[in-house]
Amino acid sequence: MSSIVVFGEVQNGLLNQASAEAVTAALSVRESGTEIVGALIGSSIPVGVFSIAGIDRLLIADDAQVTEYTCEAFVSAAAEIAKKAGAELIIIPHTSNALEWAPRLAARLNAALVTNCTSLEREGGALLATKPVAGGAVQAQYAVSSELKVVTLLAGAFVPAEKAAAAPVEQVSLGIINNPVEVLETISEVAGDGPSLRNAKVVVSGGIGIGSAENWKIIEDSAKSLNAAVGATRAAVEMGWVPTTKQVGFSGLKVAADLYVAAGISGAIHHLAGIGRVKNVVAINSDGEANIFSVANYGVVGDAKAVLPAFVARVQELRSK
Questions:
Q1: φ, ψ (nearest 5 deg) of residue 79
Q2: Half-sphere exposure of residue 71, counting CA atoms within 13 Å on the CB side?
Q3: Cβ(275)–Cβ(295) under 8 Å?
Q4: Cα dist. 30→26, 39, 90, 265 in Å?
Q5: Contact call for residues 201 and 259 (beta carbons, < 8 A)
Q6: Mean pLDDT in consecutive groups of 10 residues from the start of the chain, 321 residues
Q7: From CA 186, how far away is CA 195, in angstroms rounded?
Q8: Given 156, 171, 186, which residue is the final one in a domain?
Q9: 230 contacts 242 by C-beta, under 8 angstroms
Q10: CB within 8 A of 287, min separation 6: which ones?
Q11: Treating both helix axes as pointing N-terminal to C-terminal, what angle do 71-85 and 98-109 enclose, rounded to 10 degrees?
Q12: Which structural domain, as residue segments, surrounds residue 222?
């Protein structure tokens, strides 16, 4: 029996949302007689963490050799899982780690690879994979007909599958991995008090129009008041106002928030590539011709430093009624 293997990713003992989205993607292209196999790589993996509706069985490579992420170790473990599952399609959330190990896995398995996909379909014997190209200005569709295919999925491209009872679990044994890399130290960035940017329902994002590092506090205070995540443009990150983990765009995170408040953001194409799945965009910019207004549901022409606090105050007033 052929299978679709969906790799999940566990962070701080919790399954990230992109893993549940990957299961939905697998279900959308599942054919009769094909099983969906969940897969996890790590050490001391929590029991039942990948309990998602649609998974027929779960393969786990729980081994001390993959306690810390290294590319070679993960590729070796993933290759063993794919072999055991009889995979014809491998789906991986497009995380920072997968950006490194997924292409190497495809090369090791002599598989076709399409990264950063926003849509998957079946047509005849081919898999149709759609992804943004040219900085997000164009959506390209690739027809893949090779025997084994590897795809990575853009976060937010699919609705996450629901939780369910745990599927049967099988352990995958790993031989000795010849790993040339040793992790000496892991330094975790302080997460902050607000919600995760990747999964946030509300995001307050700032750009170069905020004006200075001192003014960036307006973005952070507004996000805190709205219980929102903080986002930023590449320009704001390059100015050193905010860490790279807050960058939204083609070279940063892609968000799928219900509400995205863009303050002082011009709307460069590489930033818009990160908010294509947002349901509602509120744009605040002093330039009425700014490109951000082309994707905004609501817009205000004005100084974001003055308009944003007033907007937040009004939202809080309405919430209190």
A1: -65, -40
A2: 15
A3: yes
A4: 6, 17, 12, 40
A5: yes
A6: 92 87 96 95 90 95 93 96 96 91 97 95 93 82 96 89 92 91 76 76 96 95 94 94 90 88 94 90 96 96 95 88 77
A7: 22
A8: 171
A9: yes
A10: 266, 301
A11: 50
A12: 202-320
Q: Distance between CA 21 and CA 8 in Å, rounded? A: 10
At 225, which amino acid appears?
S
182 within some domain: no
What single letter denotes the amino acid at residue 238?
A: E
Alpha carbons within 13 angstroms on the beta-carbon side of residue 114 total 24
The number of CA neighbours under 13 Å toward the Cβ of 26 is: 36
- Indicate the residue type of 209: G
Contact 248, 197 (CB under 8 A): yes
Instruction: Say yes or no: 144 and 29 in one domain.
Output: yes
Q: Is 49 part of any domain?
A: yes
What's the CA gap between 26 and 22, in Å, rounded? 6
Q: Dihedral through CA 264, CA 266, CA 271, CA 272, nearest 10?
A: 110
